[in-house]
Write a structure and sequence with these properties.
heterodimer, A: 306 residues, mainly alpha, MetI-like fold, B: 365 residues, alpha+beta, OB fold (Dihydrolipoamide Acetyltransferase, E2P)
Chain lengths: 306, 365
């Protein structure tokens, strides 16, 4: 109510009621969100009920959705997207935890290591991914070359050329890009854990792994949950990594929902069908967001420090 | 349950030496308090005993066994931290049970031990709560409970009462003293609060700048402070120190001229002191009363009912504090005369060492 006290003179001078004044204050943000988010979203939903192409559009009701739901290929894409998300997020979390634990250890030169973790995150994604594309290359790729050098394989291998290897190669690159941020968030959370807790546990005889399991993990659980769900959303929507590496190929092996949507809507210019896919993505992400808020709330209540 | 012995313990952090050769022998079932100002090394000393810090040199013996290199859990100690260090995500039960879980004791034994600790500490109805739902005093008890269940040889407390409000602190002091008797435990307690030290300790270690100034019973410290530091640190309000000059020595003691005051003969063991030496006469505020001798301009008067704490200064600018009788007819701004009994005076030489009083209460022996 302190705010009311401060804004009262302004309101009195301008002759606005408190509610009107509040609307006035949020109107720039509202306008911004309306133009950038709400209108495109509404337009996408409208388009999803049409057969819009470059040539024009016509209302066709739920036909786009009906087609999607009856297409086995679409279910494959959804399944692949979830698998992609699950694998990539799990790896990011596990590697983030390991990395943060190592960086949190009292080692000489840890500041240097903390800086060395950053590059995948700070260099532009496109540059990093092009680097990976070269490494995966069958003719001059570093990975193929090394594998041959050490006699693990006989012939050169183009990792992005076969379905399975392309998929897992894309996962590796996605994990490479996404891990540093997860690591730094975990590290920040770990540094927030009171040293007394570890000392108390140490006095009581708890060894390193026990302390990690019963103090570190529960103490940073709210951050783990946050990162898991945020990372899930970002990975689900991760476009440029796959697009630069494989453009969704070979033969759809790395085509996730977002890639599929792009290919249909932009490459094939079937805007209506693409819009329907986009709406499905929005719905799924909305579900993730709800789950995120729900879990975060529960975790905070369960592990809440206060 | 156990004795604790420290011998020639030193500790340096880089080039800064924080402990200079600590020798100490704590008896079985003794409640010993380490007291001293911030940075005196008391907490470091406790952490070294706990095994959280490693001593640069010296040995720690618990029950005669050298544990200097042992891990904390193998030393037979338990520790209560200033912050309590409770695990916020675990219930009170699991917090208390933590050391037992680490040791992988069977569930029945865990329940039995936690139950007993909870009973001693009156936490029975709080076992399913989280630490966040407890008051400061209850959290304190949980922390103590966690240290009880391990049945340690020596309990270590690192300023455990400093986060409590004054009333609760008084209560916990009494509870801790009772607990120590009930458990028949050897306890080491660190504090910067001399009231805590005086009220709970069997013996007090006064630390200053990484050295033990004095180790003795509370009454010994009060009546026979070994150094000027101990004299001014123990006792509330602080002891007054008045510069004086030795004018003679005889069988009755040391005769001095007190700056801004009278000539007095004080019954102390003056050792090698001789005429002309500069000394300091220490007199506790509670030993001063109205009379002739020192004259003081009374600046601030705090009437506490039973006593009237009077702050002022002599003509020479020497600050004095006197705890006068509560109904003393004095007023702020007045010049008042103060006096004291010669046997109540403490005399310190140039180096701050005491000249032992020859007449002191039997209690202090």
């Amino acid at each position: 109510m302190a705010n009311t006290g401060q804004s009262a003179p302004i309101m009195a001078r301008s002759g606005l009621s408190e509610a009107a004044f509040a609307w006035l204050l949020i109107s720039p943000a509202l306008l911004f969100i309306g133009v950038i988010v709400a209108w495109p979203l509404a337009e996408t939903i409208r388009l999803s009920f049409t057969n819009a192409t470059l040539g024009g559009e016509e209302y066709i009701g739920l036909a786009n959705y009906a087609e999607l739901l009856s297409s086995p290929k679409f279910y494959d894409t959804v399944g692949r997207t979830f698998y992609w998300m699950f694998l990539s997020v799990s790896l990011k979390l596990v590697m983030g935890l390991i990395g943060a634990s190592l960086l949190n250890a009292a080692l000489p030169g840890k500041a240097l290591f903390r800086i060395l973790v950053m590059p995948p995150w700070v260099i532009p994604v496109a540059i990093g991914v092009i680097g990976w594309k070269w490494m995966y290359n069958g003719y001059f790729g570093l990975i193929s070359g090394l594998l041959q050098e050490f006699g693990i394989i006989q012939d050169r291998v183009a990792l992005l050329a076969t379905k399975t290897s392309a998929f897992y190669s894309a996962v590796v690159t996605d994990v490479w890009v996404g891990t540093p941020m997860v690591t730094l968030f975990f590290l920040a959370a770990m540094q927030g854990v009171s040293r007394d807790l570890y000392e108390a546990a140490w006095v009581d005889g708890a060894r390193r792994w026990y302390r990690f399991r019963r103090i570190t993990i529960p103490q940073i659980m709210p951050v783990i949950v946050s990162m898991a769900l945020l990372s899930a959303i970002w990975t689900f929507n991760s476009f440029e990594i796959i697009w630069i590496l494989t453009e969704g190929g070979p033969r759809g092996a790395t085509t996730t929902l977002i890639i599929d949507t792009y290919k249909v809507a932009i490459s094939s210019q079937r805007f209506g069908e693409g819009a329907a896919r986009a709406v499905v993505i929005v719905a799924l992400l909305a579900l993730f967001s709800l789950a995120y808020l729900y879990f975060l709330n529960r975790v905070n209540r369960h592990y809440g420090a206060k | 349950m156990a004795t604790l012995e420290l011998s020639a313990l030193t500790k340096s952090f880089g080039t800064a030496q924080v402990l200079h050769g600590i020798d100490l022998a704590v008896r079985d079932r003794e409640f010993v308090v380490f007291v001293g100002p911030s940075g005196c090394g008391k907490s470091t000393l406790l952490r070294i005993i706990a095994g959280l810090e490693e001593a640069s040199a010296g040995r720690i013996l618990i029950d005669g066994v050298d544990v200097s290199q042992a891990a904390p859990v193998d030393r037979g100690i338990s520790m209560v931290f200033q912050s309590y260090a409770l695990y916020p995500h675990l219930t009170v039960f699991e917090n208390i049970a933590f050391p037992l879980r680490v040791a992988r004791l069977p569930e029945a034994e865990v329940r039995q031990k936690v139950g007993r600790a909870a009973e001693i500490l009156q936490l029975n109805d709080k076992l399913q709560l989280k630490p966040g739902q407890l008051s400061g005093g209850q959290r304190q008890r949980v922390a103590i409970g966690r240290s009880i269940v391990r049945n340690p040889k020596v309990f270590l407390f690192d300023e455990p009462l400093s986060n409590l409000d004054a009333a609760l602190r008084g209560e916990m002091r009494v509870e801790l003293s009772a607990l120590q008797r009930d458990l028949d435990a050897t306890m080491i307690f660190v504090t910067h609060d001399q009231i805590e030290a005086m009220t709970m300790a069997h013996r007090i270690v006064v630390l200053n700048k990484g050295r033990i100034e004095q180790f003795g019973t509370p009454m010994e410290l009060y009546h026979h402070p070994a150094t000027r530091f101990v004299a001014t640190f123990i006792g509330q309000p602080n002891m007054n120190l008045l510069p004086a000059t030795v004018v003679g020595t005889d069988k009755d003691g040391l005769t001095v001229d007190i700056a801004g005051g009278a000539r007095m003969t004080l019954p102390v063991d003056f050792g090698t002191a001789q005429k002309g030496d500069a000394v300091e006469v220490g007199i506790r505020p509670e030993n001063l009363r109205l009379g002739k001798g020192l004259s003081m301009k009374l600046r601030v008067l705090e009437r506490l009912g039973g006593t009237a704490i009077s702050y002022g200064a002599t003509q020479t600018g020497q600050k004095i504090c006197a705890a006068l009788a509560g109904d003393s007819p004095v007023r702020e701004g007045e010049d008042i005369g103060l006096t004291f009994a010669p046997q109540d005076a403490h005399v310190f030489d140039n180096a701050g060492r005491v000249m032992r009083r020859l007449a002191a209460p039997a209690l202090a022996a």
